[in-house]
Amino acid sequence: MNRPLRAVIADDEPLARARLQRLLGQMDAVQVVAQCASARETIGALRSTAADVVFLDIRMPDADGFDVLQALPGARPQIVFVTAYAEHAVHAFDEDAADYLLKPFSADRLHAALERVRNRVRAPELAASAVPPRTDYAARLAVSVGRRTRVIMVEELSWARAQANYVELHVGGRDYLLRGTIAELAERLDPSRFVRVHRSALVRIDAVDSLESGGGGQYLLHLREGAVLRTGRSYRQVVRSAFGLA
């Protein structure tokens, strides 16, 4: 969000409104678009103004801040309650308030509240711009066996290692050669299920029965099928993370 936060101040005390206006004026990227002295004025301002946040007093002459929220059943701005009464905090956060400022508050405390508001306002934009997760990982691998092509489901693959211009696939006690490199195979497989443990080897995570320290920053991976793989030193942190050791 590149534009300033649009703020509404709602407080029946003129001095409180003036102080909050002054403090907000000292903050970066905040624009006060309305000041209100009553619940009725606040409801009108929030219905007619595209505000990002309202700094809302709880006790006002004609109604309280919670009544204001009840009058705004649809989408509403972020709420920062500003009050001298601590006893309403639980109710405030039940209403999904971004923050609860107790008078008198410091400029630093107000700045922290604004950061919470900014994070909430930015969250939908960040989610919309996030790169969607890949869903095109291979479900099967095709290998040549004589004159036939064998289709291997990736959940049957226990581990694989580089062999010159091929990758040796270990599947249910049998070995198959797949043309290509170990890096190319790793790119095709779901990283939540397979992990590269050596420059020349990868393993299906749930095919590993146990890990044993191999010294020098290495591990020995004992697979359920009986094979034992030694990890590379440079893959230590990757292995620890994959198996919940980090």
UniProtKB/TrEMBL annotation:
Chain positions with 4-aspartylphosphate modification: D57
Pfam families xrefs: LytTR, Response_reg
Protein name per the record: Two component transcriptional regulator, LytTR family
PROSITE patterns assigned to the protein according to its UniProt record, in alphabetical order: HTH_LYTTR (PS50930), RESPONSE_REGULATORY (PS50110)
GO MF term set: DNA binding; phosphorelay response regulator activity
Signal peptide interval: none
Domain annotation HTH LytTR-type: ranges: 141-245
InterPro entries listed in its UniProt record: CheY-like_superfamily (IPR011006), LytR-like (IPR046947), LytTR_DNA-bd_dom (IPR007492), Sig_transdc_resp-reg_receiver (IPR001789)
Domain named Response regulatory: residues: 6-118
Alphabetic keyword roster: Phosphoprotein, Two-component regulatory system
